[in-house]
Amino acid sequence: MDAILGPECMNSNEKIQGWMPRERFDELFGALSALGYTCYGPQVRDHAIAYARITSSRELPRGVTDAQQPGSYRLTHTEGGRWFDWANGPQALKPLLFAPRESLWRVARDAQGRLSFTPAAERPAKIALIGARSCDLAALRLQDQHFLAGAYVDEAYAARRRNLLIVAVNCTRPASTCFCVSTGDGPRAASGFDIALTELADGFVAEAGSPVGGDILGTLVSGAASRVQVKDADEAIAQGAQQQVRSLPSRNLRDVLFDNLDHPRWDDVAARCLSCGNCTSVCPTCFCHRETEEPQLDGTASEHLREWDSCFTQGHSYIHGLTVRAATRERYRQWLTHKLGSWHDQYGRSGCVGCGRCIAWCPVGIDIVEEATALHGGGK
C-alpha cells in the first residue's frame, strides 16, 4: 500500500482510497506518536464534544450523538459503536492556532532603569488533530488567509500552523443547526487535510491529502477500499448533506446587508441579543482580539498579552472616551455585516462556514440563518 498511498498519489488526478478496518484504528495513534506528534481528538468534556489530548480510541465518544437546536446542545448515549456520529462541539480548530490568551513580548527594567524587550519564545508542540470537520477546514483556510497572507505574518500562529497535522472525518450526521451545504463548505472535506476518513460500521474509507498523510496510511490500510465501501461512504456523506434543514439565502449577502443598514430587523434582534459574545467565541473564523499589559507589582517587568475579544463588548469599539457602537443594535449589525458582507471585500468570500455553532450556543437562540433570511427579504 505504500506505493498506492505514498507521496506520488498526490500528483495524480485519481483519488486513491484505502480501507482501514476498525481494529487497526488505534495504530494511527502509534504512527503519529512515532513522528513526534501529540494527538488531540474529540472527547466528552462538560457534557459537550471537545478536543483534548488523546492516546487511544477508548477515549473517543463512542456511541455518542448530539442534538442541537437554537440555544440548546445535548449529548445522547446510544448503543451504537461509532466514534464520530456527531456534528460538532463548541470548540473548533481555532484555539489550537489562534490562542485564546498568549504572551507576545516581555519588558524588564534593570537596576539602572534601562528597559529591555524580549519576544515570547514559544516552541509549539507538534499536534495531530483527529476528527476535524469540513466546515472547520474551511474556517482554517480563512484563518490562514488572515494570519499568514499579506505583508505581516503572525509568527505565533505560523509556528503552530507548521506543526499541525490534520486527520479529518467526513460528516455523515449533521445537527439541525448545520448549514455548510449552503456555504459550500461541506459535509465532505475537500482539501486542507493530511488524512480524511469516512466512518462506516466496520471501518473507515481513508484518503491521503498530503505526502505525510499518504506515508502514514500506507502502513495502516489493509488495501484499496472496495467499490461497495466507497459507494457506502459516498452515500453516507450525501445523505448527511440532504439532512440539513437550514440554508443561507445566498453565499454573497454583501450588497443586501449594506443596502439594509436601517432595516427594522436590527431592532428586533437587538431586543433579544444579550451582547454576551458567545457567538464570536465559538465561531471558527472570528479573530478579534485585544492587547493588554500585565505589570509586576514592583514595577520591574511587564508582559504584553493578546487575548480574544468580541465586537459585542463595549471595549472593542472604545476610542478616546467614545464607544463607537454603544448599543446592541450596532454591535450585532457590525458582526453580521462583517461576517456575511465585508469579508467578501477582505477575503473573497463570506466569513461563515455553516457550522451552526453560533445558533446552538446562543443563550437566547438567535439564528443567523433566520436573521440573514429576514434581511434578504424573507421576513420582517
Radius of gyration, in Å, reads 22 Å
Helix and strand content put the structural class at alpha+beta
Strand content: 15-25%
Q: Which strand order do you get reading across the main beta sheet? A: 1-11-10-9-8-2-3
Tell me the count of domains.
Answer: 2
H-E string: HEHEEEEHEEEHHEHEEHHHHHEEEEHHH
**Span between N and C termini?**
58 Å
Largest sheet: 7 strands, mixed
> Helical content, roughly?
25-40%
The best one-word shape is globular
- Count all strands and give the number: 15
Low-confidence stretches: 1-14
Give the mean pLDDT: 93
* Number of H- or I-type helical stretches: 14
Structure, described:
This protein is α+β, with helices and mostly antiparallel strands. It has 14 helices and 15 strands. It folds into two domains: 241 residues, no CATH class; 125 residues, no CATH class. Helix content is 31%, strand content 23%. The strands form four sheets. A seven-stranded mixed β-sheet has the order 1-11-10-9-8-2-3. The chain has a four-stranded antiparallel β-sheet with strand order 7-6-13-12, with no helix packed on it. The protein has a two-stranded antiparallel sheet with strand order 4-5. The termini are far apart.
Task: Summarize the model shown.
This protein has 2 domains: 2-242, no CATH class; 254-378, no CATH class.
What are the defining features of this structure?
globular, 4-stranded antiparallel β-sheet, 380 residues, alpha+beta, 14 helices, 7-stranded mixed β-sheet
Secondary structure layout plus pairing:
Elements: H1 2-5, E1 17-21, H2 26-34, E2 38-45, E3 48-53, E4 64-69, E5 72-77, H3 94-97, E6 101-109, E7 115-119, E8 127-132, H4 134-148, H5 155-162, E9 164-169, H6 180-183, E10 195-200, E11 203-208, H7 211-218, H8 227-242, H9 254-258, H10 265-270, H11 278-282, E12 289-295, E13 301-308, E14 318-319, E15 322-323, H12 328-347, H13 357-360, H14 368-378
Parallel strand pairs: 2-8, 8-9, 9-10
Antiparallel strand pairs: 1-11, 2-3, 4-5, 6-7, 6-13, 10-11, 12-13, 14-15
